[in-house]
Structure formats: C-alpha cells, structure tokens
Amino acid sequence: MAIAKAERLMNLALCLLGTRRPLSKRELRESIEAYLEASSDDSFNRMFERDKDDLRELGLVIETVENLEGEVGYLARRDSNRLPPITLDAEEAAALGLAAKVWQQARLAGAASGALQKLRAAGLPEDVDPYEAHGALEPHIPVHEAAFEPLMLACRDRRPVVFDYRKATAARPESRQVEPWALECWRGHWYLAGWDRDRGAERVFRLSRITGRVRTRAGRFTAEVPDVVTVRETVAGWAGEIADRSALIRLRTGAGYPLRAKAVSVRELGDGWDELEIPYGHGLDAWLVEFGPDVVVLEPAELRADVVDRLRAVAKG
C-alpha cells in the first residue's frame, strides 16, 4: 500500500510539473491510473485532496488557477519548484540544526527533520552534521495550544480561518473571522497576527485564548499581507513590549521578579510591599493580572481600571 501511494504521488507530481496549463481534477483523474480505479467521485476527491496536501508538505509548490469558465485547475511551475545550488558552511549548518532542535518536542519535529534531509539531498556537505555542532545547547519553544498547527498551515497556505476567541475581559468567547499573517512567540506565549474581517483592522490573538476548533475557509485574502518585520513589531506592540510611558505599582516583597527586571525604579514601602515604576505599553494590564494578589496598580487610573476589569472577568469564570 505504501508503494502504491508513493507511485500515485510521483505520478501526480509529474503531471503537475509536466503541464504547461492548469489541469482540472477531471483531467488528472483520467491521466493517473490509481485515480481511475477510485470507486466513486467522493473517493477520488478525498484521495486527490490528501495527495495534493502531501505533495505540498514535501515542498512542491502547487498553484490553483481558475479559468474564464470558472473551472479550477492545478499546476506546478518548474521555475517555482527549482532551487539554486545550496552551499552552507559549518556555522550555517549548525544554525539550521539548532533551529530544527527547537521543534523536537512539538508536532513539527518530523517536518524539521525532513527539512534537514532535503538539505542533504540538495547538497549539504556529508561531513557536516547540523545536529552535532553546539550539541550542548538545547533550545526549546513550548507549543501546547491545539490551535498552533492549523494556524501555522493557514498562514503558510494563505487561507482565511474562523475560530472562537475569549478576550481576557469577556466571560464568553466570540467568533472571529481572520486572515492569518504570521505566528510569533513572545514571553513564552504564542500570538497570531492577522486581519480581522469583522472589525476591518489588524489584530493580534493569543493562542491560549482560542477555544474550540480552528476552521479554514475558502477564498482569497482581502487585505494586503505586511512584511514579516512589520508583523513582529505589531505583535510586540500588542503584547506590551513597546512602551511609551510609565506606570506605578505596588509589588509584594519577594514576588514578581519579571516585573522587577523591567522596573525603572524600586522603592521599599515596608510591611512586605515595594513600589515599582515600570514601562507601560499595550498589553501591560494582561501581564499584571497574571501576578494576582501580589500586584496593586497605583497609577495611571486607566491601567488600574483595566486590571480590575480583567480580574472581575476571571472571577466570573
């Protein structure tokens, strides 16, 4: 069975690479023997969609084109699927090895290992082992959210998504229609940056607040996708990294070391409390809530009100 599937994938790849015009599903079915043997149209459609996804996972760039009659066709252009010779020195190979090891504890471990195998096939020197160099380093990025993988694939394929999202100040989740741009990890949390269709503006969503299943939708993006640097700046701003003013808080003695590391000044108040001046940017209220009763906001008033609202929402469940 494994050999039959490999042969079917190879035949499909050859058809898509060998054509000069998009081929419809009907034409592909008539050209590949395994598809002709499918028991029904539904069986063929399921088989074809799985094969197409498998080829994309292997790195084949498959384009979907709609002709004037509205019929959808597929092709893989040779110029889009041809890489120049890959030349890596030992340090570059080591960097790739470290990047692959980041994902060894996540569901992307297989994809990371497969990427290194493809580099081997493309010319990575045999005497260079990207896993061995700097072997004492064990980088790790936690990926616990179930929404990570479907959102990663949606970002890659430029597919709109729908999911239920619970804001920190809301008791119940709301449905969101989003054009996903990129995923970014900040302070151990994953964030999705994208275009919120309902609100007509860019938004950042924390993956841990996504509830239920992420569903993909057909159709193209309606908003322009910014470059990766702009997306990272957007995530940093929404997550609270960019600060343009200061806040004054009381912090229990011996607690909140991440806040102390960010503090501009610290003053002992006695009775087990310290007073800290910390940078204040978007997202600080959500961060302060994580410290619970160890933090009391003194000023500004709007930050104090935001923290109180979040705590009330948590108390209501």
Structure in words:
- The protein has 317 residues and is of the alpha+beta class.
- The chain contains eleven helices and twelve strands.
- The strands form three sheets. A five-stranded antiparallel β-sheet has the order 7-6-5-4-8. Strands 10-11-9-12 form a four-stranded antiparallel β-sheet. The protein has a three-stranded antiparallel β-sheet with strand order 1-3-2.
- A hairpin with a 4-residue loop joins strand 6 (189-196) and strand 7.
- Helix 5 packs antiparallel against helix 6 (109-122).
- It starts with a helix and ends with a helix.
Q: Total number of β-strand segments?
A: 12
What share of residues are in beta strands? 15-25%
Order of helices and strands: HEHHHEEHHHEEEEEHEHEEHEH
Summarize model confidence as the mean pLDDT: 80
Round the Cα radius of gyration to an integer and report it. 25 Å
Give the count of helical stretches: 11
Shape: elongated
Structural class: alpha+beta
* Cα distance spanning the termini: 50 Å
Runs with pLDDT <50, length 5+?
Answer: none
Share of residues in helices: 25-40%
Q: How are strands sequenced across the largest beta sheet?
A: 7-6-5-4-8
Largest sheet: 5 strands, antiparallel
Which key terms come to mind for this protein?
single chain, alpha+beta, 12 strands, 317 residues, five-stranded antiparallel β-sheet, elongated, four-stranded antiparallel β-sheet
Q: Could you write a compact summary of the structure shown?
A:
With 317 residues, the chain is α+β, with helices and mostly antiparallel strands.
